[in-house]
Amino acid sequence: MHRRNVKIIVVDGNDVLVDDDDYLFLINCFNLRMEGVYVQCTPKKQYKKMGLRANSLQKLLVLPEKLGRNIVVDHIDGNESNNQKSNLRICTHPENMKNRKKNKTYANRKPTSKYKGVYWYKANQCWLARLNVDNKNVTVGCFSNEIAAASAYNLYAKKYHGEFAKLNDLEKLEMSENEFEIHRMAKNKSSQYIGVCFVDDRWVAQICHKGKNMRIGGFHTEIEAAEAYNNKALELKGEKAKLNMIHA
Questions:
Q1: Cα gap 187→196, rounded to integer Å
Q2: Range of the domain at 137
Q3: Which residues are paired to 9 by β-bridges?
Q4: C-alpha span between 83 and 61 (Å, rounded)
Q5: Residues 19, 7: contact at Cβ < 8 Å?
Q6: What phi, psi does 118 have (nearest 5°)?
Q7: Of 13, 145, 190, 196, which one has the fewest beta carbons inside 10 Å?
Q8: Residue 132 is part of a domain; what is its CATH number?
């Protein structure tokens, strides 16, 4: 396969990578500026008259004949400055969101973990692994170890997000499925599922709604309680519900 040479265009002090055969087209025909983390291209006056239109750099390079706003172009390696064609792919908005980096802040607070899909769950004193599946937040489980939770996220991200999965970089710390299962919270201490706890020899499902804890019911098995929580969460919160991923 022929490998394109790489050129660097400096845009507002930022190094932007493009293919050699796109370089002259961009610098001759467009004025470039940074808008957030993306490069915006505005055609120069003489080329605007020829039909060139303004758009983001990644859309311009992948689909120059279709510059509609509904088109999403994803940076495969997650680096918005790498606009080589081999690093760009057309996708849906949900697919693009799967490949995004971990947010540095959430609700104006710093994240409790440096790993994507991992959170400190204060109520159960454990590390929670969670991911978005079909526009619903799904909980993988609770873990006593942060690395185990990150490994669990990676496993399920590969399964449900496929080629768009943005995985945690664990290097040699990556655990196998058998290894991270060891770190699931023991049943006699807490449940691996959100909204489920063990009280008086029964699994109890409960949910917080409008600032109040609502008891859903008591169940013989942990899975029954988790399923009851999911059903009530969907009933009360719809698409915004954070659901448990049930392990049968």
A1: 11
A2: 118-244
A3: 16
A4: 8
A5: yes
A6: -120, 135
A7: 13
A8: 3.30.730.10
Please say whether the beta carbons of 121 and 196 come within 8 A. Answer: no
Q: Residue 170 has which token pair?
A: 């664990």
Q: Which residues of 119-142 are buried (b: 16+ CB within 10 A; e: fewer)?
A: bebeebebbbbbbbbeebbbbbbb
Residue pLDDT, tens place only, 1-24? 445 689 999 999 999 999 999 999
pLDDT tens, N- to C-terminus, the chain (248 residues)? 445 689 999 999 999 999 999 999 999 999 999 999 999 999 998 888 888 888 899 988 887 655 456 678 999 998 999 999 999 998 888 888 888 887 765 555 667 898 999 998 877 778 889 888 888 888 888 888 899 899 999 999 999 999 999 999 987 777 777 777 667 664 445 678 899 887 766 788 999 888 888 999 988 788 889 999 999 999 999 988 889 987 65
Does residue 100 sit within a domain?
A: no
**How is residue 101 annotated by DSSP?**
P
Q: In this structure, what token pair is assigned to residue 135?
A: 């526009």
Residue 88 has phi, psi (to 5 degrees) of -115, 140
Exposure string for 83-112, b = 16+ CB within 10 A, e = fewer: bbeebbbebeeebbbbbeeeeeeeeeeeee
Please choose, from the candidates 138, 136, 135, 96, the residue with its C-alpha nearest in 3D space to the C-alpha of residue 117.
138
pTM: 0.64
The pLDDT tens digits of the residues spanning 93-140 come to: 888 888 888 776 555 566 789 899 999 887 777 888 988 888 888 888
Report the distance separating Cα 121 and Cα 119, nearest Å.
6
